[in-house]
Amino acid sequence: MIAAEPRRILVLTGAAAPFSRTRSVAELVCRETAGVGSTSVLRDLAEYALPLLHVEAENSSGLADLRAQAERADGMIWVTPCYHGSYSGILKICLDHLRADALRGKPVGVVAVGASLTAVQASEHLRAVARALGCVTAPTQAVVVDDSGTWGKGMDPGAHQRITRMIVELHALAGATDLLRQSAATADALPAAEHS
Ligand SMILES: Cc1cc2nc3c(=O)[nH]c(=O)nc-3n(C[C@H](O)[C@H](O)[C@H](O)COP(=O)(O)O)c2cc1C
Questions:
Q1: Which positions fall inside the NADPH-dependent FMN reductase-like domain (predicted)?
Q2: For the domain 8-195, what is the CATH code?
Q3: Smallest CA separation from ligand 1 atom 18, residue
Q4: Is residue 160 in contact with ligand 1, taking CB distance under 6 Å?
């Protein structure tokens, strides 16, 4: 059974290709998120250019908005294409701009889209980034592979099912990690001596 309390999920997607498969998977993720009673905001990183880290970053209103959305979110879902065996560069630029202290303890789900099972690597790499930020990753890994050019016929039902399961997990984790996030904030506020 799914908890009644709605959660705010920030969906970040990082593929700039026209007619991006990754974008359509991100839209499906938003529909499935609504299906478990949560709300989602889709940030397509291709729609506005984030500055490179340390390059006019503080003047970017898009960046301030993105950071505020990440801080408000109860959880995030990162949807990436697989490029050369990993996740996309624009997604990495975005994640580098986010503050770890605002993300610590938040649940993160990952979806990777690729032409082969190499896409699993993109998912693994992103899960390592999530752990580096102190986030809690949803156990189910969702990877969408289109190795036969049959995209127009719809997504593999197994991949769709894993996306749904990951979203259900994320929704549950958002409730379960509330306390974790509060204690992380309290620990951050303590003077250094009290940590020892
Ligand atoms: C530069 C580049 C590198 C790619 N490298 C991989 C790869 O290593 N493994 C893989 O499975 N697919 C790879 N692909 C294929 C894409 O992951 C695949 O086409 C995916 O659907 C891209 O999503 P998009 O339609 O949103 O661009 C690559 C595509 C590009 C353009």
A1: 8-146
A2: 3.40.50.360
A3: 114
A4: no
